[in-house]
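Ligand-bound model needed. heme C.
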Amino acid sequence: MKVTKMILVLFAVTTIFMVGCTAKKQTVTEESLGLRTTDLYSEGSDTIGDKTDYIKQAAGQSQMIQRSFENAPPMIPHSVDGMLPITIDNNSCVGCHTPDVAKSLNATPVPKSHFTDFRPDTSLSNSGKIEKEGKSVDNTSDFKTIVKVEQQLVGGRYNCSACHTPQSVSSLPVENMFEADFRTKNSNNRSNLIDNINEGVDTIK
Ligand code: HEC
Ligand code: HEC
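Prediction:
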């Protein structure tokens, strides 16, 4: 009895598989691949994307942009004309965002996290090699990071535009449907990373 049942099931599965194989395959033409609606082989004027259109309002006149998610680096809501690129001799961002002056200019002060070094306790030799306690090391990922509060901006935070970017107003081919969950009332316009950076982390002493 059992064997007959098995044979029947096997037969049914094989039949379904064979029917599946002979069913007509759905194809997509090369011309219609991707988000563009024009032929892949021609670059017509209607293929060009939206023009980049950066916010033109000067600092002090723009409207802040809501954070994308809790503790996301805030977007730059004002024009950065003449401020980029940031160089070793010229970083106008700090001129307005340094905590001492920011409040009087109505700019958000650079947060405490940017004055805190989270990197492993290593140093750089004269020949450019990473060293730990005098020994050359290739990989620092196994070392415990240190949390060192500095009096000045930490080097890794100097190049503001590596993380904070000006925004362009354009229409998106695919809309972003992401909605962030903000856990506290004002975390959509302020950050508190320095207070909760170790949340959920089992800190090794
Ligand atoms: C002349 C002063 C000034 C300079 C220079 C300046 N900012 Fe600003 N920034 C402001 C002010 C004021 C605001 C508040 C919004 C506004 O009024 O435009 C602001 C807002 C911001 C914000 C949004 C903060 C938030 O809490 O959402 C970021 C990020 C920012 N600036 C980054 C930068 C970066 C990066 C540079 C350098 C490329 C820079 N700013 C240069 C004055 C300045
Ligand atoms: C390595 C990435 C990185 C760099 C570089 C960086 N930031 Fe940030 N910034 C962040 C992130 C992430 C946050 C939000 C979490 C936090 O507070 O650290 C933030 C937050 C801020 C805020 C909002 C503070 C608040 O209280 O809401 C300001 C203003 C800011 N940064 C300005 C700057 C300026 C000016 C520079 C350059 C001197 C800079 N940042 C460099 C990643 C960066």
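The pocket of heme C (ligand 1) is lined by residues 59-60, 62, 64, 74, 76-78, 80, 83-84, 92-93, 95-97, 105-108, 160-161, 164 (CB under 6 Å).
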